[in-house]
Amino acid sequence: MVSFLGFETGFVMDFIVLAFCLVFLVWFSTEFLRRRRGNCGTEAPPFRIEKPTLFVKITALSNLVIAMSYIGFCIHEIWVFGASSIEVSLSSIAWSLASVAAVYSVNRTRGIGKRWPLVLVSWWCFSSISDLLIVIFSLLRHFKSIQVPKFLPKFNVIDFATLPLSVLFFKALLDNTSAKKFNDSTQPLLGQELEKSATFRDSDAFSCAGIWSHLTFRWLNPLFEKGHREKLELEDIPEIPQSDTADEASLSLEESLRKQKTQSTSLPSAILHAIWRPLIINGVFAGVNTTASYIGPLLIPSFVNFLSSKNDNLNWRRGMILASIFFVAKTLESLSQRQWYFGAHRIGVRVRAALMVLVYKKSLSVKYGGTSSGKIINFINVDVERIGDFCWYFHGIWLLPVQVMFALVILYRSLGALPSVAALLTTIFVMVSNTPLANMQENLHTKIMEAKDSRLKATSEILKSMRVLKLHSWEPTFLKKLLQLREIERGWLKRYLYTSSAVAFLFWASPTLVSVATFGVCIILGTPLTSGTVLSALATFRILQEPIYNLPELISMIAQTKVSIDRVQNFIREEDQKRLVHYHTSGAPGVAIEIEAGEYAWENRDAKRPTIKITEKMSIPKGCKVAICGSVGTGKTSFLCSILGEIPRISGSRIKTYGSKAFVPQSAWIQTGTIRENVLFGKAMNRDLYENVVEACALNHDIEMWGCGDLSVLGERGMNLSGGQKQRIQMARALYSNSDTYLLDDPFSAVDAHTGAHMFKKCLMQLLYGKTVVYVTHQLEFLDAADLVLVMKDGIIVESGKYKDLILNPDGELIRQMAAHSYSLNQVCPPKRIGSGKSYSHNKQMELIEEKFVDMSRSSQVSDRNLQEETETGRVKWHVYSTFVTSAYKGALVPVILLCQVLFQGLQMASNYWIAWGSEEEGRVTRDRLIGIFALLSGGSSFFILGRAILLSTIAIETSQCLFLGMIRSILRAPLSFFDSTPSSRILKRSSTDQSIVDTDIPYRLAGLAFALIQLLSIVFLMSHVAWQVFFLFVIVFSVSIWYQAYYIKTARELARMVPIRQAPILHHFSESISGATVIRSFNQESRFMNKNLDLIDDYSRVAFHNAGTMEWLCVRINFLFNFVFFLLLAILVSLPRSAIDPSLAGLAATYGLNLSVLQAWVIWNLCNVENKMISVERILQFTSIPSEAPPVNENFRPETEWPLSGKIEIENLHVQYSPVLPKVLKGITCTFPGEKKIGIVGRTGSGKSTLIQALFRVVEHTEGRILIDNIDISKIGLQDLRSRLSIIPQDPVLFQGTVRINLDPLQEHEDQEIWEVLHKCHLAENVKQDQRLLDAPVAEDGENWSVGQRQLVCLARVLLQRRRILVLDEATASVDTATDNVIQKTIREETNGSTVITVAHRIPTVIDNDLVLVLGEGKVIEYDSPAKLLEESSSAFSSLVMEYMRRSSTVNN
Q1: CA separation for the pair 121, 169 (Å, rounded)
Q2: DSSP helix/strand/coil, 153
Q3: 492 vs 1407 pLDDT, higher one
Q4: In Å, what is the CA distance from 131 to each residue of 15, 1098, 1248?
Q5: pLDDT tens, 554-593?
Q6: 792 neighbors 746 (Cβ within 8 angstroms)
Q7: Span 125-147, mean pLDDT?
Q8: Cβ-contact 644, 1082 below 8 angstroms
Q9: Residue 425 half-sphere exposure, CB side, CA atoms within 13 Å?
Q10: Average of pLDDT values for 1391-1417?
C-alpha cells in the first residue's frame, strides 16, 4: 500500500510544489484587489481584452487536462489503497490552481504581447524540468538500474503522459517573453478598442467578467453596492448579454423552427436546437457537481477506519489529507452547483424571451377572434413561465440514472454485488410505482389549466364590464359566477395537491425502503457490516435521496411543462393556418381598391348564410369617396373587414388594396399613453400637419380643457375619455398617418350634430381631398358628398351608384331609409323660422358634445404615476407572513406539521446511529435485532412524513382560497375610480401568476424552509455533540451568514419586486395589441409594436437575469463558510485522541456533514425565495384592503319593495367635487324631474351632465345638497337597493361571453316568452332566429360576433326586460341607422309609459319630443323647460342647437 514516504524521498520537491500553491493563492488575491480597484475607477485595468488564438486555447486546455489527470490518479489511489501519496495530492492542487490561472488569462493580455502571468510561467518551467528529470531517471533506472536521486519524487504514469504537453508550455513561454512590436499607426486604433470595450463592460458586466468573477459572481458587486446605498430602479440594472436579448433569442428559435422539415412543428425540438450549446455547458457543470457529491461517500469508510484505529501514533497527515480532499470536493461541488443553477436560470430567461416574442408575433399576424385574449395572456403568464422554469429541472432527467449508477458502484464496493442489486431493484420498484401517479398529475394539471383559463377569461370580462356591472348592481351575480369557476379549479387543485402528497410520501419513504432492503439482504447473506461500510451506504442513500426527493417535483414539472408546451405548440400550429398574407403589389394605374366577387364569413358564427356576399367585381379609383349605408346588422363593418383582409374568405378571389391604409374602427381602440402619442402613432412630429389634424377633429377645446394639454395621459382603453373623444382621437390618428386609402367605420355616430358636421367638412372634404375614402355612416346627410354610395342589406350590396341617381328609384332601399330620416327631421318643428334669431355667436353656441359616464374632471389626471405600479418598499412585513400562516384554521395545523418534521428527523438520525453503532463491533447486537429496530425506526419516520405531506396540502388549499376570496371580494366592492386608475393587467396578474404561486408554491417553500432549518439545526447539534469546539465556529459562521444575508436582501428584495412589475407592462402590451391588432395591421405598424415588445421583454429579462444571479452570489459565499467549518470539524476529529472519540457518532457526524453545504444552501435559497415569493402574498393583500364603496345594503334604512312608485327625482342644491383639491363640478344644481316624464339633458363637454348621472347612481358622492327619489334620500340607502331599482343604457354597449339569454337576463329572472317579446320590440328577433340554437346561441368575447348597433339594441332589450321606474339613456341608439332609431324611439316611448326617462342627448330628435329639457353649463342649470317653450325663444341655448342640426340636415331634406 502506498504510504507517505514521499515526505522522506521527495520532501524538497513537495515543499517547492506547496510553495507554488501558496504563490498562486497570493497572486489570485492580488489580482482580485487590482480588479476591484479597477472597477472602482481608482486604477486602470492591468489588462486588455483580446481574442485568443487557437494555440492559446490549446495551452489553457492542456493545463486542464493535466489537472484532471492528477485528480483522477489521486482518486484512483484512494479507491485502490485507501489513501493517496502527498506528491500526487499536492500536484493535483497545484495544477488545478494553474488551470484556473490559465483559463482566467486566456482573454487578457498584460502589456504588449504578454498574456501569461509570471507565476504561471514559472510553474510551467519548474514542472516541465521536473517532469523531464523524473522521466529520464526513471528510464535510466529501468534499463541501467541506476539510483534515482532522493530529491525527486516517485515516478508515476501521469509524469510520462504529460511530458509531451511540456513542449507547448515552452512555446508559450517564448511567445510571452518576445513582445510584439506595434507601430504608431496602430496605437489610436488600440485606444478606440479599449474605449469600446470599457463602454460595453459598463453596459454588460456579465459578458466582460473573467473566470474568477464568474465563479464567485463578483460581477454583481457593483449592483449590490448600489442596492445597499439606495433603492434600485430599472436604470440601475445592467444590460443582459446580447445572446439573451429577446431579439437574438427569438431569431434563434425561429431559425430552429424553419429548419424543421416535417409538416408538424415540434416546439420542444426547436427549443433544444436553439439552446443546445449553453445546455451542454450547463450539463457539464451538473455532471461535475454530481461526481463531486459522491467523493464524500467514497471516502467515508477510509475516514471512519482512520478514526476507529486504536493507534494514536498513526500518521495524522493521512487524516489531514483525507479532510483536505473532503474540503476540495465539497468546494468543487458548491461552485459547480452555483454555475449549474445560474446557467439554468439564464437559459430559462432566453427561452422565456423567445417564446414571448413568438406568441406575440403569432397573435399580431393572424386574424384575431379565434383565440381569446384571456387565453393568450395565460400563455404568457403561466405556460411560457413554466417552460422557462423547466430549464432548471432539465438535467435532472439524465442525472437521476447517473446518480443511481454512482450509488450502485459505491454500494458494490462497500457491500458487494447482491445487496447492490437489491438496492437497484428496490429503486426501480419505487420509480415504476410512481408512473400512474405521474400520469394522474399530468391529467389533473391539464384540468387545472383549463379551469384557470375559464376563470381568467371571466375575470377579464368582468373587469372590462365593471362600469355596467356597478351601474346595474350585478356584482353579486358575477361574483357568484366567478366563485363557481374558482370552485371547479379548486376541486382539481385539491386532487392535484393530494396526489402530490402521495408522490412526496412515496419518495421520502423510498430511501428507507432501499436501505432496509439493502441491509436486509446483507443480513441474510451474512455480508460483514462495519461502521464504515454502513455509514458509506447511508451517505450514498442520503445523496440519492436528493434526486429521489426532487423526483416528485421533477415528474410534476415534466407533466406541467408538457401541458404548457402542448398548449403553446397547438396555438402556433392552429394560428399558422390563419396567418394573414399582406399584398403590396401595384395594380392598374389610378385604381386604389379592386373588389372581386366572393363570399366571406366569420368563423365563430353559426349562421345559415355567409356574412358578406359580393356578386360582382368593382374597382374603386384613387381619390374616390365611397359611402356605405344600411340598417343595423347588414354587414357594413364586415364589408370593411373584407377589404382589410380581416374576415375569412369562403370563396372567390381576394380583395386587393394598393398603397398605405388607415382604419378607424367603430369600437374605438385607444392606447395607454399621451394624446399626442395616440395621434402621432409612431410617426415623427410635423407641427403644421398636427395642428391641422387636431383642429379638423375638433380636439382643440378638449386639449385646452385638460391640464397637460395633448401630453395628458390616457388610461387603459381610453377609460377616462368619452365615446366621442375616443372616436375623434382615432380619426386624428388616421388623418395624421397621411395614408393613401382611408376606411372609416361610422366615426360620426358617437359625436354630436355640430361636431359631426365640422369633422365631415374639415376631415373628409378638406384634409382628405384627393384621398381614397370608404366610410360607413348612418347619417344620411353625409351621402351626398360621396362619389359612390353602396347600400347594403343582409350582407349583400343591393344598390350602388351616385347619390342623386339612387334617390330617383322610388322602390330602392335608400329611399326607404330616406323616408325614415325625413320622419325624424319632421319631429323637429320649431314655432319660428329657424335661423331668424342669432343672439348666440358661433363660439358661444351650446354644443351637444358626447359624454360618457366617467369623471370628466379627471380626464387628464391619470398621471404617469398610475401607469407605474405602486410597490411596497423594504422587507416584506411580518403581518404578511402572519396573515398567510394563520389564514387556514387560524394556524392550528402549523405546530403539528413542525412536530411531524422534528419527529421524522429525530427518528432518521436515531435509525442511522443505531445501525452504525450495532455494526461497529461484531456481536454487539444480533443481526435480526439490528435490522428489525432499524426498520421500525425508519418506518416510524416515514409515517410522520405522510402526516406532514397531507396536512401541508390541506393548509395550502385552505390558505389559497382564503386569500383569493379576500382579494376578489375587495376588488368587486371597490369604487369605479379604482378601475379608472388601475390597469386590468395588474388585477389579472394577481389573479393569475400571484394566485398560482399561492396555490402551489408558497406553502411548500415556507414549509421547506422550516424543514431545512430543523435538519440544519439537528446536524449542528450532532456535530457540536461530537466536537464541542465546532459550536463556536457555527456561531461565528451563522453571524457572518446573517450579515451576508442582510447585505444581500436589500438588493435581492427590490429585484424580486421588480420581476412581476416588469412583467405587467408585457401583459398590458399583449392585451392592448391583441385588441387593436386590426388597427395595427392596417397602419402597417407591426414592426414598431414588435420593437416595443422586445424592449419590454428585455427589461423583464434584465431583472430576472440579475435576480437569479444575486441568489447564487450569496450561496457561493455562505457555502464556502460551511464547507470550511466541515473541514475544521474533520481536522479536530483527526487531532483528538482516539479514546475521546465515539467512532460511530463521529462517522455519523461526518456523514451528515457531507450534506451540510447542500442543506445550508437549501436553507438560504428557501429563506430568500420565501421572501421573494411572499411578495405575491403582499401583492394580493394589497388588493384585499382597497377602500370600498358605501355598503350594498343599509339594514336600518331599506326602501319598500315597490320603491320607487312614481319615479319623481328632486335635486336640491347639489354640489359635487371629485376631490377636496379639485374644483367643484356641480355647483348648486336644483331641479325636479317629475315622475313618469321624459327629460333630456344637454350641454357642452364639462358642463356636468355625466357628473349629474353619476351622482344619481352614487358613483360619486355629493359634498352638499341631496337627491330624493320618491321622497327618499338616496344617500341613506344601500347601493344595491339604489342601483337595482334604476336602469341605464351606457353609450358603449357591453356584451358578455355566453349565450343570448345570459346577455339579456343575467340574473335569470324572466321566462323565454318575455325575452322574445323584447327581442321583437327591439327588432333583434330575426337576427337571433338565424341561429338554430336561438336564445342559447353563443355570444363571443366582447360580443365580437354582433355589430356595434346590434349590441346597443341588445342593451336596450336588456333594460326593457327589467321594466324599472327610472331609466337613463346615454344616447342608446348612436350606432343604429335612422330608420331603426325611429322605431326604437317609438318602442322606448311605448314601453316606458309610466317610467321616468332621463336622456343624455346627442341627436336632436331624441330629445325634441321629451316633456322637459335640462341645459347645463359649467356645473349650473342654464335652462330647464319644455322643448316647445325653449324653442319659442330664438336666443335660447336649445334653439341654437336645433338650428345647427337643421342646417346640417338640409342637404338630405333638399
Answers
A1: 8
A2: coil
A3: 492
A4: 16, 52, 96
A5: 777 787 788 888 888 887 776 555 544 444 455 567 788 8
A6: no
A7: 66
A8: yes
A9: 10
A10: 79
The per-residue pLDDT for 312 is 54
Backbone phi and psi for residue 802, each to the nearest 5 degrees, phi listed first: -75, 150
Nearest to 1072 by CA among 1310, 579, 717, 549: 717
Residue 327, pLDDT above cutoff 60: yes
Q: Is the pLDDT of residue 1005 over 60?
A: yes
Residue in this structure with the C-alpha cell 375614402, named with its chain if needed: 773
Instruction: Give the pLDDT of residue 202.
Output: 46
CB 978 within 8 A of CB 858: no
Average pLDDT over residues 1192-1216: 84
Share of the chain above pLDDT 70, in %: 80
Mean pLDDT over each residue of the chain, to the nearest integer: 76
pTM of the model: 0.66
- For 274, counting Cβ atoms within 10 Å of its Cβ (0-12 exposed, 13-18 middle, 19+ buried), the class is buried
Condensed to tens digits (0 to 9), the pLDDT of residues 849-887 reads 343 333 333 333 444 444 455 555 556 778 788 888 888
- The grid coordinates listed for 689 are 400637419
Give the span between the Cα atoms of 153 and 163, in whole angstroms: 16
350, 172, 168, 114: which is closest to 252 by C-alpha?
A: 350
What is the distance, to the nearest Å, from the Cα of residue 1049 to the centroid of all Cα atoms in its chain?
A: 23
User: Which are the contacts of 843, defined by CB distance < 8 A and separation ≥ 6?
Assistant: none
Grid coordinates representing 619 are 374597382
What mean pLDDT is predicted for residues 900-916? 81
- Residue 318: count of CB within 10 angstroms of its CB: 18
Cis check: omega of the bond before 1204, within 30 degrees of 0: yes
DSSP labels for 280-294? HHHHHHHHHHHHHHT
Neighbour count for residue 1365 (Cβ, 10 Å): 22
Task: Count how many residues are written for the chain.
Answer: 1454
- 1413 pairs with which residues across the strands? 1240, 1425
842 CB neighbour count, 10 Å cutoff: 9
Q: Going by C-beta distance under 8 Å and a sequence separation of 6 or more, which residues neighbour residue 728?
A: 697, 698, 699, 702, 751, 755, 759
List the beta bridge partners of residue 1299: 1338
pLDDT recorded at residue 36: 59
Cα–Cα distance for residue pair 1106/240, rounded to 1 Å? 8
Neighbours of 1023 (CB within 10 A): 26
Single-letter residue type at 935: A
Q: Tell how many helices (H) and how many strands (E) occur in the chain.
A: 54, 28
Residue with the larger pLDDT of the pair 1271 and 708:
1271
Per-residue CA distances from 913 to 309, 1053, 1146 (Å) = 19, 41, 10
CB 638 within 8 A of CB 611: yes
DSSP letters, 1344-1387, are TTS-HHHHHHHHHHHHHHH--SEEEEESTTTTS-HHHHHHHHHH
| C-alpha cell at position 809 | 328609384
Residue type for 947, please?
G
Q: How many CA atoms lie within 13 A of 404 on its CB side?
A: 20
Q: What is the DSSP string of 238-287?
A: PPPPGGGSHHHHHHHHHHHHHH--SSS--HHHHHHHHSHHHHHHHHHHHH
- Report d(CA 953, CA 999) in Å as an integer: 10
